[in-house]
Structure formats: C-alpha cells, structure tokens
Design brief:
Order of helices and strands: HHEHEHH
Shape: globular
Distance between the termini: 47 Å
Strand content: 5-15%
Radius of gyration: 17 Å
Number of helices: 5
Strand order of the largest sheet: 1-2
Number of strands: 2
Helix content: 40-55%
Number of domains: 2
Largest sheet: 2 strands, parallel
C-alpha cells in the first residue's frame, strides 16, 4: 500500500474508533466517507467533487445531458436531488431515478441484486441511446 493509502487507513481507523463513542454515527460516517473520497478538506467543495454544493451548480447552462440516480437511504440523496433540479432548470436533466429501499453502494455492498441489475440495464439503455449514431 502507498504511504498515502496507509495514512488514509490510519485516519479512517481513528475516525471509526471515535464512532464507537459518538452519538451521531451518521455524521461520523460522513467524515469517514468524505476522507476516503477526498482526503484534502479544501478540495471537497470543488465543483468537480461536489457539483451540487453551494453555488457550484448555479451556472451549468450548456452542461452535457445527465441522468441522476439516487438511493433512498443515501446520505447524499438530497444533494443529488438538488443537483437534478439544477440540471432540469438548465435543460440538461434527461431523467431522475430514486432507487427505493437501498443505501449508497447498494450495487456492490448489498444483496439487492435484482434492483442493481435493473438499474444497470436502465443506465446502459441511456448510454446506448446517447451514443447511437444518427
């Protein structure tokens, strides 16, 4: 493992140890995931890392068409929904889907195989239609 990976692992272990003592586990989980996603706190609000944060999506007219898929219990669902609304206002939202009954990572960290296959097929359909020659 690289030195950066070891540092991330140590930091995650430290946060997880604190989680055992924390009353608000969801907030602590968020810090663990935020650290794993983008270790540098200064970069977490960058528009490419978090397109729906603050004013990041205020001027997205002309952005490529997008399909937004969220999970019902995902802590990022509300942020993704706000981003979908901004895409809609900019004329770039192709479709919005909220997968019911699942959490973030349902496609790789759960037994929701049927819904995962359905969503993969749905996404593949959009990609196929978007890349089909006229």
């Amino acid at each position: 493992m690289t030195p950066a990976g070891e540092e991330l692992r140590r930091h995650a272990r430290q946060l997880l140890r604190r989680a055992r003592l924390a009353k608000d586990a969801q907030a602590l989980d968020g810090r663990v995931f935020d650290t794993a996603y983008i270790p540098d706190r200064k970069q977490r609000r960058h528009r490419l890392a978090s397109p729906a944060w603050g004013a990041n999506s205020d001027s997205i007219v002309g952005i490529a068409p997008a399909v937004v898929v969220t999970a019902e219990h995902d802590r990022l669902r509300n942020e993704a929904h706000r981003y979908a609304e901004k895409l809609h206002a900019a004329g770039s939202l192709v479709d919005y889907h909220e997968v019911t009954g699942v959490d973030h990572g349902y496609n790789i960290m759960s037994t929701a195989h049927q819904v995962t296959e359905q969503m993969y097929a749905l996404i593949a359909g959009y990609v196929t239609r978007a890349t089909r020659s006229p």
